[in-house]
Amino acid sequence: MDILLLGPPGAGKGTQGALLAQALGLPKFATGDLLRDAVKQGTPLGLTARAVMEAGHLVSDDIILGVIRDELAKPAAANGVIFDGVVRTIPQAEGVAEVLAGMGRKMDKILFFDVPDADLLHRITIRRQTETRADDDPAAVAIRLEAYRKQTAPVVAWYEAHGGITRVDAVGTVDKIYERTLTAVGQ
């Protein structure tokens, strides 16, 4: 089962994705993790990605899709994966759909973690205090939320037009949200 998790920064995709991956016995793909692993492994795509990242630029859709293609070809991904925020633009959505179709697969479930902005900012503030993540600086968060609204939010409309999205109320305790997430994937 291939499952895509969508939502703004701080919506709980990482937390719920890890829980879901464990429950379903599937690997979890997150763009940043995949890129860092490709760089660490010294793959051709990883080396290209490193050069782009070190120059301070965003990694292109082609590089991201190449890394996803490489990961999906691994035996561990044969039964499906949890895509944790991997699709961030419409070209990436189209590309992932093509990669999966080439493997005789499709995105089985698309979950959108719905959280009001005030809750997102509160969560990110707490995460910054407990995890000391540099990308949770208030200025960085504002940039990420703006980028999300401009680039990623249209992906939600694209998926709604191409098969539908299941919205998950992502407000409440981790356990309550996890119950809703399991229900959304039919578990």
What does this structure look like?
A five-stranded parallel beta sheet has the order 2-3-1-4-5. The protein has a single domain, classed as P-loop containing nucleotide triphosphate hydrolases (Rossmann fold). The protein is globular. The protein is built from eight helices and five strands. Helix 1 (13-24) packs across helix 8 (174-184). The termini are close together. By secondary structure, the chain is of the alpha/beta class. It has helices at residues 13-24, 31-41, 44-54, 61-72, 90-102, 117-131, 138-161, 174-184; strands spanning 3-6, 28-30, 82-84, 109-114, 166-169.
For the largest beta sheet, what order do the strands appear in spatially?
Answer: 2-3-1-4-5
Q: Mind describing the biggest β-sheet?
A: 5 strands, parallel
Order of helices and strands: EHEHHHEHEHHEH
Distance between the termini: 12 Å
Q: Count of DSSP E strands? A: 5
Over all CA atoms, what is the radius of gyration? 16 Å
Mean pLDDT across every amino acid position: 85
Low-confidence stretches: none
Q: What is the CATH T-level topology?
A: Rossmann fold
**Quick one: overall form?**
globular
Structural class: alpha/beta
Identify the CATH class.
Alpha Beta
Per DSSP, the total helix count is: 8
The domain count comes to: 1
CATH architecture: 3-Layer(aba) Sandwich
**Portion in strands:** 5-15%
CATH-wise, what's the superfamily?
P-loop containing nucleotide triphosphate hydrolases
Helix content range: 55-70%
